[in-house]
Amino acid sequence: MDDAPADPTRRRWLAAALGLALGCRRSSSGRRPLTVAAAMSLSEALTAIARDFEGAHPEVELLLDLAGSQALAAQILAGAAVDVFVSADLAQLQRVVDAGLAEAPTTIAANRLVVIAGSEVALAEAADLAAAERKVVLCAPEVPAGAYARAA
């Protein structure tokens, strides 16, 4: 993610988007439920945003459904009631949009690929990763970070 938790502008924008997504429903507690289905990779940031949002909007009960983007898209396509879908995978988000279950997406955060190497490893550029003696570990290609790494 591209510094989204620390960026107050993005946090305010997401809070506003969540506010706009509120319907007229009420839960048994009398608070309006707002269900946010979000990629597990965003759990830390969204948990903090949810805490701030509920503090500013005590009439709202924010329900976070955190899972993989593919699993969340499948749930939504199967009829799960979701107010906001925050996907880490554009292809999964597009499936939901194509089914007419979401409007055109808005980018609120971005991932950034990083290389973690021991201090004894000399890496001057990305091509240095291709050296025969190097071991490179990537996420599975089925998850967004793995697909992005392979595309880079």
Notable traits:
D-Maltodextrin-Binding Protein, domain 2; single chain; three-stranded parallel beta sheet; 3 strands; 5 helices; disordered N terminus; alpha/beta; 152 residues
State the gist of this model.
The chain is of the alpha/beta class. The protein is 35% helix and 12% strand. It has helices at residues 8-20, 43-56, 69-77, 90-98, 144-151; strands at 32-39, 60-67, 84-86.
In the residues, how many domains can be counted? 2
E-strand count: 3
- What's the CATH architecture name of the largest domain? 3-Layer(aba) Sandwich
The shape is elongated
Fold-level CATH name of the largest domain:
D-Maltodextrin-Binding Protein, domain 2
Radius of gyration: 18 Å
Main β sheet profile: 3 strands, parallel
Q: What is the mean pLDDT?
A: 82
**Beta-strand percentage?**
5-15%
Low-confidence stretches: 1-5
Helix percentage range = 25-40%
User: H/E order of the elements?
Assistant: HEHEHEHH
Q: What is the CATH superfamily classification of the largest domain?
A: Periplasmic binding protein-like II
Helix/strand-derived class? alpha/beta
